[in-house]
Amino acid sequence: MSIPRFHLAFPVKELEKTLAFYRDILGCKTGRSSDKWIDFDFWGHQVVAHVSPEDAGKSASNEVDGHKVPAKHFGVILEWDEFFELAERLEEHDLDFIIEPYIRFKGKPGEQATMFFLDPSGNALEFKAFRDESQIFAK
């Protein structure tokens, strides 16, 4: 059985910087596009950036583990090594993190690496990895 893929549409301020960020920095392949939107292959999932400057980057935050976590965010769960490779690539591009890469629940059920950052439109992304993927929903 194949794993279902999700589709997510999100607002951006403009496409040129969005394309450069998702394609050139995150490494996402592109799909169909127009002058108002562009499809990205987001680790096997379809995410679509739609030009809507008035809606882009707006989010409240919640306190989690002493960090202000954007209430509205998206991302993927990567393999452990892939997470750190991406973190290194983002650092090489001098990306400003909302929450720098760190390990949550170290030595406990659900141990995970996580990081938060913004795309050029101010949309928050979270990437994470679990040391043991069977612990994704651990309590």
TrEMBL record:
Record InterPro entries: Glyas_Bleomycin-R_OHBP_Dase, Glyas_Fos-R_dOase_dom, VOC_core
Gene3D superfamilies in alphabetical order: 2,3-Dihydroxybiphenyl 1,2-Dioxygenase, domain 1
SUPFAM superfamilies xrefs: Glyoxalase/Bleomycin resistance protein/Dihydroxybiphenyl dioxygenase
Residue intervals of the VOC domain: 4-130
Top-level division of the source organism's lineage: Bacteria
Signal peptide: none
Record-given protein name: VOC family protein
